[in-house]
Amino acid sequence: MNMSDEDVRQQLRELFSDERLGAGSTLNPEAIVAGARRRRRRRQLMQTTSGMAAAVVLLGGGLTVFTIHDKDNGAAFPGGDQLTMGAASSSPAQPGPGSSAPAASAPVEQPNPTTAPPHSTASDGPVKPPKSTAATKPPTQRKVTSGSLLTSAGFGKLRLGMSESEAEATAGPLRAKEVRGTCTYGHADEGAAVPVSTSVSLTEGDGITVINPTGTVHTPEGIGVGSTEADILAAYPGSTKDGSSYVAPVSAVSAYRISVSDDGSAVSILLTSINQNCQFS
Question: Which domains does the chain have, with CATH numbers?
Answer without folding.
Answer: 5-60 (no CATH), 64-91 (no CATH), 148-273 (3.40.33.10)
